[in-house]
């Protein structure tokens, strides 16, 4: 049974005329008649009473008509649904990002995406790179903004470098700071200085601790365990200094000091699973992310 046969059958049933049905379907009348006969052979029953000047439904035809209409309607609905998704009138993107990126880069990118594709739902998961990699691998995210290089035991992901972000030192406004009045900071300046530190598993925590250890000392924490907003609040309250991304520092209003060359940096990349192509909406979001980096 073919959809074309059901369309022809429905046209004849509604017009009660083979010629008018063929005209409605833009097909030659002999072709339409042949398809109707083929449908009758497949079903093993006549669908129409054929009398000169009159076409009527048999009992079998009357039973088939509502089913044929439903099948054709469902087919049209499926076609429209797929086209809407394919044309990004509808859909969903599940994006993961670190808290620092959610506080800086992500809002502007999502606003651009939503302006272009208002019918596509956006779901954002905030977490550390390790958590985001795990969610990508399990299929719970379509895309993620992660810090690269990934851990050696990370699953096979496709990554594309988005930006190389400078890390800077933020200090309490008007409070004590090891770099007050200086244009640049050095990692060595943080020796025995109280640091406001992120929770364990947070990329910025690992980067800061590694930089201190490379400079020959273990950092001292005044308070630890916070997410990005909490860390900014703790610094603002005078509890210590912190190392944060420059984009976050620029929005924080806190005194900011860059590190002397070569400075501290981290690489942010867009990642997705290597064995599954992301949905079209996710691919479009990735394209916008890559375009947006040119303005950073």
Looking at this protein, list some descriptive labels:
296 residues; alpha/beta; 7-stranded mixed sheet
Q: Could you please describe the fold and organization of this structure?
A:
This protein is an alpha/beta fold and 296 residues long. 44% of the residues lie in helices and 24% in strands. The chain contains 11 helices and 11 strands. The protein has helices at residues 3-15, 18-25, 29-43, 59-86, 99-102, 105-116, 129-137, 203-214, 228-236, 246-252, 280-292, and strands at 48-51, 54-57, 91-97, 120-126, 143-148, 157-170, 194-198, 220-226, 242-245, 256-258, 264-273. The strands form 3 sheets. Strands 3, 4, 5, 6, 9, 10 and 11 form a 7-stranded mixed beta sheet that branches. Helix 6 (105-116) packs across helix 11. It is rod-shaped. It starts with a helix and ends with a helix. The model has no long low-confidence stretch (mean pLDDT 89).
Which helices and strands, and how do they pair?
Layout: H1 3-15, H2 18-25, H3 29-43, E1 48-51, E2 54-57, H4 59-86, E3 91-97, H5 99-102, H6 105-116, E4 120-126, H7 129-137, E5 143-148, E6 157-170, E7 194-198, H8 203-214, E8 220-226, H9 228-236, E9 242-245, H10 246-252, E10 256-258, E11 264-273, H11 280-292
Parallel strand pairs: 3-4, 3-5, 7-8
Antiparallel strand pairs: 1-2, 5-11, 6-9, 6-10, 6-11
Helix pairs in contact: 1-2, 1-3, 1-4, 2-3, 6-11
């Amino acid at each position: 049974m073919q959809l074309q046969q059901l369309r022809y059958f429905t046209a004849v049933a509604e017009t009660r005329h083979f010629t008018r049905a063929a005209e409605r379907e833009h097909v030659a009348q002999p072709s339409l008649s042949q398809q109707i006969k083929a449908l009758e052979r497949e079903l093993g029953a006549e669908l129409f009473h054929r009398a000169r000047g009159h076409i009527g439904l048999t009992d079998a035809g009357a039973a088939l008509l509502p089913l044929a209409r439903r099948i054709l309607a469902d087919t049209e609905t499926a076609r429209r649904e797929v086209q809407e998704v394919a044309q990004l009138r509808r859909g969903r993107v599940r994006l993961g990002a670190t808290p620092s990126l959610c506080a800086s880069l992500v809002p502007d990118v999502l606003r651009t995406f939503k302006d272009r594709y208002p019918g596509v739902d956006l779901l954002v998961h905030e977490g550390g790179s390790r958590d985001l990699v795990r969610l990508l691998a399990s299929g719970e995210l379509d895309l993620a903004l992660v810090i690269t290089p990934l851990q050696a035991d990370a699953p096979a992901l496709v990554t594309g470098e988005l930006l190389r972000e400078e890390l800077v030192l933020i200090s309490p406004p008007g409070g004590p700071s090891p770099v007050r009045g200086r244009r640049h900071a050095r990692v060595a300046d943080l020796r025995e200085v109280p640091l406001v530190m992120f929770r364990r598993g947070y990329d910025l925590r690992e980067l800061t601790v590694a930089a201190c250890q490379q400079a020959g000392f273990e950092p001292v924490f005044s308070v630890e365990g916070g997410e990005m907003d909490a860390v900014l609040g703790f610094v603002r309250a005078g509890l210590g200094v912190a190392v944060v991304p420059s984009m976050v520092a620029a929005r924080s209003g806190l005194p900011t000091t860059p590190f002397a060359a070569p400075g501290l940096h981290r690489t942010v990349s867009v990642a997705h699973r290597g064995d599954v192509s992301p949905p079209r909406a996710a691919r479009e979001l990735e394209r916008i992310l890559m375009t947006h980096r040119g303005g950073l």
